[in-house]
Design goal:
Bound molecules: S-adenosylmethionine
Order of helices and strands: HEEHHHEHEHEHEHEHEEHE
Structural class: alpha/beta
Number of strands: 10
CATH architecture: 3-Layer(aba) Sandwich
Strand content: 15-25%
Number of domains: 1
CATH superfamily: Vaccinia Virus protein VP39
Strand order of the largest sheet: 5-4-1-6-7-9-8-10
CATH topology: Rossmann fold
Shape: globular
Length: 295
């Protein structure tokens, strides 16, 4: 089932949490010189036009990036994320939103590698086209091309099935982002299964799973199942911007579950999450949960 289009949701509160965390995980990996690989198993289109038909339909970015756009005073990790979005909007008007592939490409260094899986035929075309445009722009500016050579590879393939062939990465340093649509509830089980296998192939990898916090059983149980996978350590963070809607529709709460998080992540989130709740929260039920553990 491939009906999901991330453009409807681009820049919402869930993207803020996800992309801010991904940037910080990559920053940590980049502190050491040896190359790392980022594998994005569900990449999406890479860049989204917020004034396009999809994104403007429900204007979900108004729950996420929009309230941050004109702020100057914010925690460092949020600023780094907002600055990255600003770099895509040099006119100063918020028009484009970077998906995880764009965020990763911006943060990675020359020696690092980015591997992108996308299964939706239209999304993968847009993704490839976006990287072609990035290359053309980089070339015009005399900068390094991103997609050419082996730096960035886009696979038109199932990210759950394709991951194992890339693990462990040659440098034995890497981040895997797993961000499925979950419209098919089997995605919850696939996440757990793919991580079980990945931890055998690459036990020291950093794994980041985005998930919606919903009433359905599969969603409520996912974090508990991930805690039991046997990774050396884990961190779970959720952000709710308000209480559940009476009709149960809409996404008000989402989480990032990280296996083998760097030690810097928890203190950073302890600083950032209360600020995000205060800034993005729209009622008294806005809250965050942050928990961490070791095997
Ligand atoms: N990671 C992106 C970001 O943060 O910008 C958003 C990804 S979106 C939540 C999920 C994407 O996964 C959709 O574009 C969908 O077409 C794609 N998809 C669904 N099932 C897939 C699969 N098995 N393998 C690869 N991509 C898949």
């Amino acid at each position: 089932m491939l009906s999901y289009r991330h453009a409807f949701h681009a820049g919402n509160h869930a993207d803020v949490l996800k992309h801010m965390v991904v940037i910080q995980l990559m920053r940590y990996l980049g502190q050491k010189d040896p190359a790392y690989m980022v594998i994005d198993t569900h990449a999406g289109a890479g860049v989204y036009a917020l004034d396009g038909d999809y994104a403007s339909k429900n204007a979900e970015y108004e729950t996420g990036i929009a309230p941050l756009w004109n702020l100057r005073d914010m925690p460092e990790a949020v600023k780094e994320y907002v600055d990255l979005v600003r770099s895509l909007n040099p006119s100063g008007k918020l028009r484009y939103y970077p998906g995880s592939p764009y965020c990763a490409e911006k943060i990675m260094r020359d020696q690092d590698r980015l591997r992108l899986f996308e299964l939706h035929p239209s999304e993968v075309k847009i993704l490839e086209e976006n990287f072609r445009k990035l290359d053309a722009h980089a070339q015009a500016q005399g900068q390094r091309p991103s997609a050419r050579g082996k730096r960035v590879l886009v696979y038109r393939a199932d990210g759950f099935a394709g991951l194992k062939a890339l693990l462990p990465p040659p440098s034995r340093r890497g981040l895997v982002l797993i961000d499925p649509p979950y419209e098919d509830k089997r995605d919850y089980g696939r996440v757990v299964e793919v991580l079980k296998d990945a931890l055998v192939r690459f036990p020291t990898g950093v794994y980041a799973v985005w998930y919606p916090v919903l009433q359905r059983n599969e969603s409520r149980q996912l974090a508990e199942r991930l805690k039991r996978l046997g990774a050396k350590s884990w961190l779970n963070v959720t952000l709710a911007i308000h209480g559940p809607a009476p009709d149960g529709f809409g996404l008000h709460n989402s989480g990032m579950f990280i296996l083998n998080p760097p030690w810097t992540l928890e203190p950073m989130l302890r600083e950032v999450m209360p600020w995000l709740v205060q800034t993005l929260g729209t009622d008294d039920s806005a809250e965050f949960v942050l928990e961490a553990g070791e095997a």
